[in-house]
Design brief:
The structure holds 2 protein chains of 2 kinds.
Chain A (H helix, E strand, L loop, with lengths): L3 H7 L2 H6 L7 E2 L2 E2 L1 E2 L10 H13 L10 H21 L7 E4 L2 H16 L5 E5 L8 H10 L2 E5 L9 H7 L4 E7 L11 H10 L3 E5 L11 H4 L3 E5 L10 E5 L1 H6 L10 E4 L4 E3 L13 H17 L1 H20 L4 E4 L8 E6 L4 H10 L2 E2 L1 E3 L4 H7 L4 E5 L6 H17 L2
Parallel strand pairs in A: 3-15, 5-6, 5-7, 7-8, 8-9
Antiparallel strand pairs in A: 1-2, 4-10, 9-10, 11-12, 13-14, 14-17, 16-17
Helix pairs in contact in A: 1-12, 3-11, 4-11, 5-6, 12-15, 13-15
Chain B lengths: L2 H5 L2 H8 L12 E7 L4 E10 L2 E10 L2 H14 L4 H16 L28 H15 L4 E3 L2
Parallel strand pairs in B: 1-4
Antiparallel strand pairs in B: 1-2, 2-3
Helix pairs in contact in B: 2-3, 3-5, 4-5
Chain lengths: 414, 150
Amino acid sequence: MSGTAGTKAAFDVEAIRREFPVLRETVHGKPLVYLDSAASAQKPQAVIDAERQVYERAYSNVHRGVHHLSMLATDAYEQARGKVQRFLGAAESREIVLLRGTTEAVNLVAQSYGRKHVAAGDEVLITGLEHHSNIVPWQLLCEEKGAALKVAPIDDAGEVDMAAFERLLSPRTRIVSVAHVSNALGTVNPVGRMTELGHAAGAVVMIDGAQAAPHLAVDVGAIGCDFYAFSGHKVYGPSGVGALYGRTALLDAMPPWQGGGDMIASVTFERSTWNELPYKFEAGTPNIAGGIALGAAIDWVEKTGLGAIAAHEHDLLEYGTGLLRGVSGLRIVGTAREKAGVLSFVLEGIHPHDAGTILDYEGIAVRTGHHCAQPVMDRYGIPATTRASLACFNTREELDALVRGIGKVQEMFR
Amino acid sequence: MSPLRELYQEVILDHSKRPRNLRGMPEANRSAIGHNPLCGDRATVYLHVEGDVVRDVSFEGSGCSISTASASMMTDALKGKTVAEAKALFETFHELVTADPSKAATAPAALGKLAVFAGVHEFPMRVKCASLAWHTMKAALDGGDRASTE
């Protein structure tokens, strides 16, 4: 997987497509064209099999029993944690907290680290391209503490104004939380630089990697961030499972977030003590089969090659951008220099929901709406966009089909 | 006719492109703001009710063609109706767009032109688009100032 040319030649999209059973489906009599992986990716057979096999052969609760199945399930679950650790480039497996997903991870950091370290008059800095899940948890925290939520604006292309970002950092900034990749626009944020700036201001830095993990290699050590979160369902894994990376020293000093089984060392009615990392943050029975299948998804992505996937998707992004630019009455929303996986657009005089319904009739699945990023829509003065998002299994022919579908949409409203 | 054509009938397209009664109403004595949190569509419905009769209805807002056409045709349909008739029409319309297609009978005569929205029941994801203005109108008549499709 060294040179781009080499990876491109090795990338057999037809073989990859055969691994995704859902791609054999038809919708309204047309072959399914799935361009909604930014909402949630489809699953390869290996992931589906992994989850099924847990229930068929090795299911029990984890970290509890002494019996055989409990040991099998615990081993597999902890192996999955190790895979997540390597996937993110974390130094130790105890830095990986397995959770429901990115949303839960942001809430954990806001409620545990945030409530301890943010006080009245303090500030939290986010950007103008954040998903609701990287806005609302901070609003809740700031409201409770009398702190201020600061927002670094984005420009017309959908890039964060780095000068403003720098200006908005202050000695009162306790936490910086930014998306690695925007789900609505596809913008790739310069998270390394943002982390440096945040640290220089004395803040801790969290990266929302939900939209990045399927598209680019993540190395938390290289980024230098304090927290990084992603969701399994966007990297071809199950929904309801994801991970938070946190630096050991920070996680160690943080109070538990949710109380319950598995997160304790001992419990009496007078006092309880907490389990070691990462279990201190994992109250209750987790998504066991989902976690194990997330490990299988990471294996699958690594076997396929994240570099090769990225190169393939980049080719599709450029091809699709060129096609859409040629459609009159269409405007691409989000034209950052660094983009991954997303083609968001509006059609003159046509609401995205109407476009979505008509495209669906052509078998084409796109997301229409505000993409859980209403402030981004407000920034562009639009209620919604139509978003075609890309995955490893998409093809140029599918983007051709999208453009033909857009033609039918425009015909209906001519 | 294909279900898609059934949904996007000429009269719906016409009302979506040239909505009627799309304006504010300073003399309104009933109004409500409707919101579909799923898609972000918003509609404000104004009514001028005199005694028991709806003298004027208008709306403001932005939405897809189905929600715009529905609001437009609703305002046309309600003028001159009594409050009780308007509420009854809400129920009839709601049944029309949510009806089980397998049991679809012919649309009740009371609906008149509104019967063109029968095609919506083939598109469960769009029922809320068609009913946003109606929910908002009902909230205004019931004395609420907010309506949500959720």
